[in-house]
């Protein structure tokens, strides 16, 4: 199977999944108690006003007609309008996604930089002291709620020590956002040579990135250890009669692909997980916006948000498959 | 409690008496996890007796008092004793984890059994639902469903149970696929057993063994996600002494330095979740020593 056919096949398999998710979201927001009609109408509105609003939003039509219209617009790239901000959902997503990705990418890089070496080191002497400690730390990372550890560290690093800027946004109020290139304030202000803005952006990034990288690193430690243990215990590495150190090097090279695969899979859930941290640090990213949309019953916004998450995770799975193909010569193209 | 029955399954084939120290030596992780969970279970049962005050008893003159002699964990913004509230919070943790774990099994196990044994259309449907749920971040789904269906304890349990059922369906299904053509199933069929009997009497006891550790892990997740929902403001609401809701109350005082309102419920939450996770890890060690502490 050629790479192109492989990609095409994946794409065909992806469509029903995305369709299922879109339908599920579409249904879920509509069976809810929150209704945009009641919120837009306000407490003083009468039945007639409600009816007018309902008609304007198209909510008076049968469910499947609404879904059909939504799908029709969706294939043209129109995600509808948010009734809360009256902005186009597609624009809102485009404006907010970079903020979330900035947080996510820096955290995943840091988390992998911590997690992979710790996991490898743990696997070298299973049940040794280092292994015991790192296993416990990793389980702790699994168990600690992001929002709680964020609140605690805001107390320590902002309130007590004054090392960290107030947990409100991505820049201090004196700085203006740099011209948009990548969407990351930190990278953009370095590129445009605006050092004070870069410094401010870095200051605001540090605490949330460190916190999130702990959450990211926990499963990476666990899985890297497991993968490395499996590779190290396999016979082919030892059978060559080489020194233990050389065996380790050869074995670990074989662990790279599964580790990368795992980090990729982990990424898919993190775009949603980062939303709680965004909420606490008033980050203004996609996650915070999506959470608010869910709480307010902003139909089009919730649908757009969930769709972005789904597309994100689905495309990561495809990228992983391709990456494995490149890194692992033995892998063949299977579905 | 559930943890006791878990141990029972884990150690079938062992003589139960006199083995406790043996288990503790074989998997300290399991022993520590079990101790933590058992301690919190006792707290949940005896919360009324241990707690010095009622969980929603207010002392209107003693608002935001730091930890001290009267309120050992301090008092919150409503003048309620944080210590008593944290103790009562354990009831909500178990009150959510135990029934939702039961629901996951009640839905997931039969689905997995039937899907694996019968195959065909039903198997295909279960697999597709798994695909959709896998691409759907659980926190978002839980949030959307709870926000949609209304904020009550029962709804939270139902949502968590339904969301996690496919995990067990998949685990059981893969076990059934491996067992389906084995000798004892074939002889059961040949002996004329009805399908339901093959599924629930012959297959089920063998197929759920692999799910034991996962139950503890998913209970940890249930405690966590229900607290997260309460923290975001859906699900259980203040002044109910639920840990997530209490952290939410404490969040507004963090910047002004009243740390105790959020610290203690969060610490208790970490304790229970860590306990369940250790239990799950330890169970995996005990059940499958070859794959020590691997897996998800």
Walkthrough of the structure:
The complex is a heterodimer of chains A (335) and B (296). Chain A is an all-alpha fold and 335 residues long. Chain A has a domain at 96-293: MetI-like fold, CATH 1.10.3720. Chain A is 76% helix and 0% strand. Chain A has helices at 3-31, 36-41, 47-57, 63-75, 89-124, 129-143, 146-160, 185-191, 195-233, 235-239, 244-280, 286-296, 299-327. Chain A is globular. The model of chain A has no long low-confidence stretch (mean pLDDT 83). Chain B is mainly α. Chain B has one domain (29-57, 72-294): MetI-like (MetI-like fold, Orthogonal Bundle), CATH 1.10.3720.10. Chain B has twelve helices and no strands. Chain B has helices at residues 2-10, 20-26, 28-50, 82-118, 120-134, 138-149, 153-179, 183-190, 195-207, 212-232, 243-254, 260-287. In chain B, 49% of the residues are buried. The chains are: A mainly alpha (335), B mainly alpha (296). Chains A and B meet through α1, α6, α7, α9 and α11 of A and α5, α6, α10, α11 and α12 of B.
What's the helix and strand layout?
The complex is a heterodimer of chains A (335) and B (296).
Chain A: H1 3-31, H2 36-41, H3 47-57, H4 63-75, H5 89-124, H6 129-143, H7 146-160, H8 185-191, H9 195-233, H10 235-239, H11 244-280, H12 286-296, H13 299-327
Chain B: H1 2-10, H2 20-26, H3 28-50, H4 82-118, H5 120-134, H6 138-149, H7 153-179, H8 183-190, H9 195-207, H10 212-232, H11 243-254, H12 260-287
Helix pairs in contact in B: 2-3, 3-4, 3-12, 4-5, 4-7, 4-9, 4-10, 4-12, 5-7, 6-7, 7-9, 7-10, 8-9, 10-11, 10-12, 11-12
How would you summarize what this structure contains?
Chain A has 335 residues and is an all-alpha fold.
